[in-house]
Design brief:
- This protein is of the alpha/beta class.
- The protein folds into two domains: 83 residues, 3-Layer(aba) Sandwich (Rossmann fold), CATH 3.40.50.10860; 125 residues, NAD(P)-binding Rossmann-like Domain (Rossmann fold), CATH 3.40.50.
- Helices cover 39% and strands 16% of the residues.
- It is built from ten helices and ten strands.
- The strands form three sheets. The chain has a five-stranded parallel beta sheet.
Length: 282
């Protein structure tokens, strides 16, 4: 089974559009901030704006010079934070090396943090409050729901320990309601093949092309490929798709798998942020 993230993302976007159509007199706005001219980041930001418009969400974009200093960038975020017309703020990562990312994210109010990366929202996730959570792991959960993949009592393995994907994915899969038993592994884990072979649900978010082979996958397992590696030949995932497809119960392609779901869940988070701010009814 191909787990079609593009199809589910369109369904989610259309649901959001239908929700917002009930409040045609209310404008919901997503603001994005891009520092520098990274081609991949520009592509991602453009995609987010196109999908936002398609869902009925207004968007504004700020592009800043690569050499902007810390104080000036913080001032730009503070302007958006204090702007009542802005409901969601997304700072496109990665930032230049001279910028302290954590200080920038700390300037985003928790209720406008549509990437779910501030200390407050990460802390809420640990406590099981799940108000605004990182978009990619949320997208994996939405795919699990859309395909009725059972999680309760199942064994899940997440490969990758980043705060953007791996750690929140582990928390979401093990939370009340999902109730999976989760192992968090990474590229330096010993016996990684054996660890992965136990998984009913396998999520890889390392960014190492083809590292998850057929040998890692339990027959019938559901495999979610999150890791992205850009090459001259195009985007490659962590999962050797051609080999894994033959033995997995389901697998996401790369692209058109978890990527579209990340953008769709950004839209979901933007609407949720507006509800947290009292702009839309809960």
């Amino acid at each position: 089974m191909i787990i079609d993230g593009k199809k589910v993302a369109i369904q989610l976007r259309n649901q959001i559009k239908a929700q917002l159509a009930q409040f045609s007199d209310i404008q919901i706005t997503l603001a994005t901030v891009l520092v520098g001219e990274n081609p991949a980041s520009k592509l991602y930001v453009g995609m987010k704006h196109r999908e936002a418009h398609a869902a009925g969400i207004h968007s504004k974009h700020i592009t800043l010079q690569q050499d902007i200093d810390q104080q000036s960038l913080e001032a730009e975020i503070e302007k958006l934070a204090s702007d009542d017309s802005v409901n969601g703020i997304l700072v496109q990562l990665p930032l230049p090396k001279h910028i302290d990312k954590d200080r920038i994210l700390a300037k985003i109010p928790a209720e406008k943090d549509v990437d779910g990366l501030t200390e407050v929202n990460m802390g809420r996730l640990v406590q099981g409050q799940n108000q605004l959570v990182p978009c990619t792991p949320l997208g994996v959960m939405r795919l699990i729901e859309a395909y009725n993949i059972p999680t309760r009592g199942k064994t899940a393995v997440v490969v990758g320990r980043s705060s953007l994907v791996g750690l929140p994915q582990m928390l979401l899969l093990s939370a009340h309601g999902a109730d999976a038993t989760v192992t968090l592994a990474h590229s330096r884990s010993e016996n990684l093949v054996e660890i992965c072979q136990r998984a009913d649900i396998l999520v890889s978010a390392v960014g190492s092309a083809g590292m998850i082979t057929a040998a890692h996958v339990k027959p019938g397992a559901m495999v979610f490929d999150v890791g992205v590696t850009r090459t001259a030949a195009g985007i490659l995932g962590d999962v050797d798709f051609a080999a894994v497809e033959k033995i997995a119960g389901g697998v996401t392609p790369m692209p058109a798998g978890t990527g579209p779901m990340t953008v769709a869940c950004l839209l979901e988070n933007t609407v949720k942020a507006a509800r947290l701010q009292g702009i839309l009814p809960i």
